[in-house]
Amino acid sequence: MSVQPKIKRITVPEIRARKGGEPVVCLTSYHAHTARFIDPYVDVILVGDSLGMVMYGMETTLGVTIDMMIAHGTAVMRGTDRALVVVDMPFGSYEESPEVAFRNAVRIIKETGCTAVKLEGGKRLAETIRYLNERGIPVMAHIGLTPQSIQTMGGFKTQGRVEEEWAAIEEDAAAIAGAGAFAVVLEGMAEPLAARITHQISIPTIGIGASAECDGQILVLEDMLGLSPKAPKFVKEFATLGAQIAGAAEAYAREVRARTFPAVENTYGMKKVK
Ligand code: KIV
């Protein structure tokens, strides 16, 4: 007997088939409530390890744990029923060996119910990507500026500014596509290089600070909503929620101090004590 799942999400083959076609729309989310708002409009929701910096105030993503990713991944799954949800594998959870990566990816997928995982790195991770993919775990890759390598890169620096850097990054892209990744994030990458990679490989490239030459785009939700104190320069703010939240808090504080809140009609019908 077969049982049809009630929820029909966008699938990995559907995303892969968008190569060179309709752009893939992706955003990050870390919670059920924000995920619920964006679910009807995006193809992919990434539960990014950027949550360490955005939500927990960490300086880098290096301190993010599997348990944190699972807690937030589970919340995002609860808030959505349409987008394909990808959960980041945090630093230290996949680099050691394909077997370790498999064990941790299985835990993330079983405990959150997400469809796929993302990991950072090129050629050196091709064997791991192949190992996961062959065992039923779809992988989104991530090359260019890879925040988990911040210490070896020496900072958040745009990659491929000089032509001499291109060949190595192009080799990374070819290796992960060949290993079976279904899409790849190109982060912080000079436009000509992002364009070359997009033309060279057979899987969708998802840009973040990598120009409009990619097959899709991703932004950190809090950055594009105006909630981040210091968003990267390339980010367009589509809303100014930070200012709105501050304004709402200020208005509330004013009313509480003036004893005009709560108004009588908001107090469950209780009469004011004279
Ligand atoms: O962690 C994250 O949010 C990411 C995106 C910036 C692509 O990896």
**Average pLDDT score:** 95
Order of helices and strands: HEHEHHEHEHEHHEHEEHH
Low-pLDDT segments, ≥5 res: none
| Class from secondary-structure proportions | alpha/beta
| CATH superfamily caption | Phosphoenolpyruvate-binding domains
The oligomeric state is single chain
Judging by the overall fold, what is the CATH architecture? Alpha-Beta Barrel
Shape: globular
Largest sheet: 8 strands, parallel, barrel
Give the DSSP E fraction (strand runs of 2 or more residues): 5-15%
Spatial strand arrangement across the major sheet = 1-2-3-4-5-6-7-8
| β-strand number | 8
Q: Gap between N and C termini, in Å?
A: 69 Å
Number of helices: 11
CATH class: Alpha Beta
The CATH topology turns out to be: TIM Barrel
Relevant terms:
single chain, 274 residues, alpha/beta, TIM Barrel, eight-stranded parallel beta barrel, 37% helix, 14% strand, globular, binds 3-methyl-2-oxobutanoic acid
Tell me about this structure.
By secondary structure, the chain is an alpha/beta fold. It has a single domain, classed as Phosphoenolpyruvate-binding domains (TIM Barrel, Alpha-Beta Barrel), CATH 3.20.20. The chain is 37% helix and 14% strand. The protein has 11 helices and 8 strands. Strands 1-2-3-4-5-6-7-8 form an 8-stranded parallel beta barrel, surrounded by 5 helices. The N and C termini lie far apart (69 Å). 3-methyl-2-oxobutanoic acid binds next to strand 6.
Could you provide a short overview of the structure?
The protein is an alpha/beta fold and 274 residues long.
Strand-helix topology:
Blueprint: H1 12-16, E1 24-28, H2 32-38, E2 44-47, H3 51-54, H4 66-78, E3 84-88, H5 98-112, E4 116-120, H6 126-134, E5 139-144, H7 150-153, H8 166-178, E6 183-187, H9 191-200, E7 205-208, E8 216-219, H10 221-224, H11 241-257
